[in-house]
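Q: What would this complex look like in 3D?
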Amino acid sequence: MHARKVTAIAYPNIALVKYWGNRDHTLRLPSNDSLSFNLGDLRTTTTVEIDPSLSHDEVTLDGRTIGGAAYERVVHHLDRIVDSVCATQEVNGRSRTRMRVTSINTFPMGVGIASSASGFAALTLATCTVLGMKPSEAELSSLARLGSGSACRSIPGGFVSWHDSFAITIAPAQHWNLMDVIAIISNEHKTVSSTEGHALAETSPLQAARITDTSRRYELCRQAIMNCDFAALAEVVEQDALMMHAVAMTSQPSIIYWASTTLNILSAVRELRESGVPVTFTIDAGPNVHCICEQHALKQVKQMLWQMSGVIDVIQSGVGGPASVIAQSHGSHDDTQQVTPFHISPKDRV
Amino acid sequence: MHARKVTAIAYPNIALVKYWGNRDHTLRLPSNDSLSFNLGDLRTTTTVEIDPSLSHDEVTLDGRTIGGAAYERVVHHLDRIVDSVCATQEVNGRSRTRMRVTSINTFPMGVGIASSASGFAALTLATCTVLGMKPSEAELSSLARLGSGSACRSIPGGFVSWHDSFAITIAPAQHWNLMDVIAIISNEHKTVSSTEGHALAETSPLQAARITDTSRRYELCRQAIMNCDFAALAEVVEQDALMMHAVAMTSQPSIIYWASTTLNILSAVRELRESGVPVTFTIDAGPNVHCICEQHALKQVKQMLWQMSGVIDVIQSGVGGPASVIAQSHGSHDDTQQVTPFHISPKDRV
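A: Here is my prediction, written as C-alpha cells for the whole assembly.
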C-alpha cells in the first residue's frame, strides 16, 4: 500500500539564460531554452495528504488557507496529476479523493523570488509520490512545468538546462561554488505577474530576435558554467537579462519591472566587477536584483548592497540539489517516517 | 563680392523615432529613418568669419577657445565644406584662408541636449554662406550630417523626417503645438558619447530587429503627427525610445544611459498620462528625460518634474523653424548687416 501523506522539498531557481515567452501558453512550452541553478538555501516544503473525509481540496500556504485564483491553480494541478495517473491506474479524476496541501517557504513570498517554481516542483513530487506514481525525473519535470513553467527547472539538481518540455542537470550543485545574493527592493508600483509578461512577450518587435539569438547565449553560458569561467558568465548573464527586460519594456503594453534602486545596483555591480570582484547581475520579472558571485566575493557583495538606499533586505543562497521526498506516512495515523531524500538516478532520466 | 562674415542660427531637435547606428560610419549614413522636431526655444548662434590674417582656424564655444578632438572635428568640417566648393569654385582647400568660428548656445552643453545637432547645422549654414555657396536645403542637410548625424534634421524647420542622406520638413512648426519639457538629471556616472553608441549598435543582437521594425514605427509616428493624435504618438514614441535603449543596453560592451531618476520619471509620466494628461517620454543618449506634451499640459508636467528628487533643472521648448542666416557683413570692417532670416523655398528642396 502506498503512502497517504508525503512531504517533499524543492528549491527556487535563478535563470542565467532566461525563459521569456511561450510557444504554447496552455502547455507552457517555452519560446526558448534556458539555464538556471537551484537556490539550495531557500526551500519550499510541501506536504500532500490524501484524506477521504475532505469534501474539497484544502490548500495552506505559509500557515494561511488560500482561495481564489491561487487556490484554483493548485487544484487544477492536482487534477492534472491525478488525470495523468488515471489513464493507467485506478484513481478516478472526476470524483477523486480530495487532498490537503500544506506548503511552507523559508523565504518571503511576493518579493520576486520565484516561489511558484519551488512550490509547483515540491507539489508535483509530493502529489505523484502520494499517488504511488514512480515518474522519471523528466516526467516529474514535465508535470511541474504545466503548473508553472520554470518549476520544471526546480526538479533536477544543481545547474539545470530546460529544453522544450523538461529540464535536466548539466552539472551538479558542487560543480561551482556560486552564490546568489538577492537585493530585495522597496517598490511602490504594482508589478505585472510573470505569467502576464510571458503572454505579452510576442507583442514586442524584439522578441523574435531574442529567441533567434538564444542558441548563442545558451552555448556561451553553458561553456562558462562548465569551465567555471566567471568573466564569460558575467558577460552573457547580464546581456541575457537585459534582453529579457528589453522585450518586456517594448511589449504592448510596455512593462518596466525596474525600480530606481534596481538601476543603482546594476551600476554598482559593474563598478565592483571592474575593480576585480567576481560579481554579475540578473533580474527576473520584478525590481529585485540577483547578484551572482563566487563564494569568496560574498562579503564584498553584501556590503555593497547594504550600503544602497532602497535595499530593504538581502537574501543569499548557494547552489542547491534536486527536489526530494523527505517524509512519508503509510497510514491514516500520524506515523510519519523520515526518509533519505529521494533522488532520481541518472538512468531514470530521459 | 560675397560676405566675409556670416551669422546663422539653428535649433537642436528631439527625435520621436530615433536614429541609432550607421550603415556607413564615415559618411554617417543612418541604419534607419528617423523623425524629429526642432526645439525652437533653444538656439545655437554661430558666426563664421574668413580672416586672411589667421594662421590657423580659431574656434570659440560659449566664450571658451577650444582645442583637442572637439576643435579637430570643427576644422575637419570646415575643410569638408571648402573641399566641396573647391571642385567648382576658386577656393583652394589645401591652403585655404583660415576662419574664426564663434558659437553660443542658449542652453547648457554637456547635459544631454544635442548641441552637436544645432551646432553643426548652424556651422554648416554659416560656412556655406560665407563661402558664397547657394546650396539647396537638401545639400545643406547632407553637409551638416557629415559633421554630426542628427544635425541634418536641424536644417529644415518644424517636424522633420531624415531618410538616408538628408532630412526634409513633413509639417511646419505651427502644425502642432507640442512642447518638449526636459528634465535635467544629476548623474554621477560618465556617459558614453552618442558617436560611440552608434558605433556599438550593431553589436547588439537586437539591432537588426529594431531596424527591420522601423518602417512600422516611422509610419505610426508620421500619422500621429499628421493627425495630431497624441495617444497614438505616446505609444510609438515610448516604444521607439525603449527600443533604442534596449539596443544600447545589450550592445557589447553594454551601455546603460539611465540614472535612477530617469526611471522614476518614466513611471511618473505614465501615471500622469493615465490620469488624462497628454504627456509622453523619450530619452536620448544620456539620463535626461524629454517629456513631450501638448501646450495645455505644460504646467502639470513641469510641476510633476520639479517634485522629483534628482531633477536639477527643467528646460522647455516649443517646436522651432529651420536653420537661418541672421546677419552678414561684406567687408573687413565690422559693418554687420541684419538680414531677414534665410529661408530655403520649397522649390530648392530635392
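A: To summarize the key features: The domain at 5-173+324-349 of chain A is CATH 3.30.230.10 (Ribosomal Protein S5; domain 2). The two ends of chain A are 28 Å apart (CA to CA).
Q: Very helpful, thank you.
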